[in-house]
Design goal:
By secondary structure, the chain is α/β, with parallel strands linked by helices. The chain has two domains: 6-109 and 251-314, FAD/NAD(P)-binding domain, CATH 3.50.50; 113-247, FAD/NAD(P)-binding domain. Helices cover 24% and strands 27% of the residues. The chain has eight helices and 25 strands. The protein has helices spanning 14-26, 66-69, 129-141, 161-176, 200-209, 297-314, 357-364, 366-374; strands at residues 6-10, 33-38, 42-44, 63-65, 75-78, 81-85, 90-93, 97-99, 102-105, 110-111, 145-151, 182-187, 213-215, 220-224, 229-232, 237-239, 242-246, 249-250, 262-263, 266-268, 282-284, 289-290, 328-335, 338-344, 351-352. The protein is globular. 44% of the residues are buried. The model has no long low-confidence stretch (mean pLDDT 97). The protein binds flavin-adenine dinucleotide. The site of flavin-adenine dinucleotide has 36 residues, from helix 1, strand 2 and helix 6. Flavin-adenine dinucleotide binds at residues 10-16, 37-40, 46-47, 49-50, 80-81, 106-108, 126-127, 157-158, 161, 252, 254, 286-288, 295-298, 300, 330.
Length: 379
């Protein structure tokens, strides 16, 4: 009897769950073993980092048990990956060694606070559940002052997040009746308010309409805790009462020793095929990949869709293979109860809709669509 190939997925976040569920539904059990390795017991919807700090969402609506989201026909190994031996086609975890015919790396990014001296213990963020809840407590007690918001780097997952958080904070403070007691400064490393040229003027106008001061060319260097000062790499400084900084991100440590080419532990891949050089049997999807597009959940599940088709094709289950064209589409909070949707790919420059109430409501309901369809690999 021919050997049944093993598709091994490492990382049980957005990309890993979407991919594992999708390929399991497509391929009958006789065609492939699908194994997912990850140590999370519950899966948090990171987009709710925009809502939890303002009390716009109940905390227990933002996560679901991984086993509830994962197709029961996927083998789920609760473990942590510590290494990959690409020449042996083996993944090493804390407890075992797992062989694969196809490997899908979906281990995302980690927060790298150590890149900014003084960050820990002082700056706040909304990039995971615990820190979003910490901010919720802080904002409940907040009575006004100087708030400084911005990203430490421009290429962190969800690049517009500091902009979105700033305009939501403006909305929240107006609702709370303390906007006139608060100044909001938006700091950004580039000489424009956002990295995509097509969007920057619109976002700058929205920030100005929300009476948010824009400080461009401010590359975060360090936090001087005792003076409540944020310093740029050039030596400029800004005072704050509340500092909200998206931390730098890096790929997982085990990538460094895997022999796979990488930039800051993000795996370098062919941008259309998502394979690391010399390894057609390995695919990298989601935040773990170094690609010339922003890191986003919407990019991750479109990458997963491509890899599902490509592996199925290689296993003789699909007539034609496909490529990934760099598609990304996401809806942004655009201030004053509005939202806007942006779409682009490697070829098409970004196209954005006008800010609309409908897009705001769509974005607020995103977690429902996420848990019922996206994480389950239905789309
Ligand atoms: C506040 C916020 C808002 C966002 N809003 C949007 C949005 O509106 N639209 C959008 O498209 N994107 C958005 N994003 C980005 C999006 O959440 C990420 O791009 C997406 O989660 C990436 O998915 P991933 O699977 O690559 O990484 P993750 O979802 O982070 O999953 C990685 C998984 O790998 C596991 N893992 C890591 N290391 C190991 C190891 N050694 N062994 C085993 N498992 C491991 C982790 O535990 C985790 O489960 C937002 C992000 C944030 C923080």
């Amino acid at each position: 009897m021919p050997k049944i190939p093993r598709i091994l997925v490492i990382g049980d976040g957005t990309a890993g769950l979407n991919f594992a569920n999708k390929i399991r539904r497509l391929l009958p059990a006789d065609d492939a073993f699908v194994t997912l390795v990850g140590s999370s017991s519950r899966h948090y919807y990171k987009g709710d980092g925009f809502l939890l700090p303002f009390g716009y969402k109940k905390p227990n609506e933002s996560y679901k048990p991984v086993d509830f989201l994962l197709d029961s026909r996927v083998e789920h190994i609760r473990d942590t990956v510590t290494g990959i031996r690409v020449n042996d086609r083996a993944v090493i975890t804390r407890k075992r060694t797992l062989n694969y015919d196809y490997l899908v790396i979906a281990t995302g990014a980690k927060l790298a606070y150590e890149m900014v001296p003084g960050y820990l213990g002082e700056a706040k963020h909304f990039y995971d559940f615990e820190h979003s809840m910490e901010l919720r407590g802080i904002l409940e007690r907040f009575n006004g002052g100087n708030v400084v918001i911005g990203p430490c780097e421009v290429n962190s997952p969800c690049p517009p997040s500091s902009f979105e958080f700033a305009v939501l904070l403006d909305q929240f403070l107006r609702e709370k009746g303390i906007r006139d007691k608060t100044s909001i400064k938006y700091v950004y490393p580039l000489e424009k308010a956002f990295l995509l040229d097509e969007l920057a003027p619109t976002l700058e106008q929205i920030l100005r309409d929300s009476e948010i001061e824009i400080v461009t060319g401010f590359e975060v260097g360090s936090v001087i805790q005792k003076n409540h000062e944020l310093h740029s790499k050039k030596g400029d400084s800004i005072n704050y009462d509340l500092l909200i900084l998206v931390p730098p991100h890096r790929g997982q440590d085990f990538i460094a020793d895997s022999g796979l080419k990488n930039v800051n532990n993000f795996v370098t891949v062919d941008k259309n095929r998502l394979n690391p050089e010399g390894h057609d049997e390995i695919f990298v999807i989601g935040d773990a990949a170094d690609l010339p597009i922003p890191k986003a959940a919407s990019a991750a599940w479109m990458q997963a869709e491509y890899v599902v088709k490509e592996i199925s094709h290689r296993l003789g289950k699909m007539m034609i293979g496909s490529t990934y064209e760099g598609d990304v589409g996401c809806t942004l909070y655009a201030g004053r109860g509005l939202g806007m949707t942006v779409y682009f790919n490697y070829e098409k420059r970004p196209l954005a809709s006008k800010p609309k109430r409908f897009d705001y409501l769509l974005k607020k309901m995103e977690s429902d669509a996420y848990f019922s369809a996206i994480a389950r690999g239905m789309i």
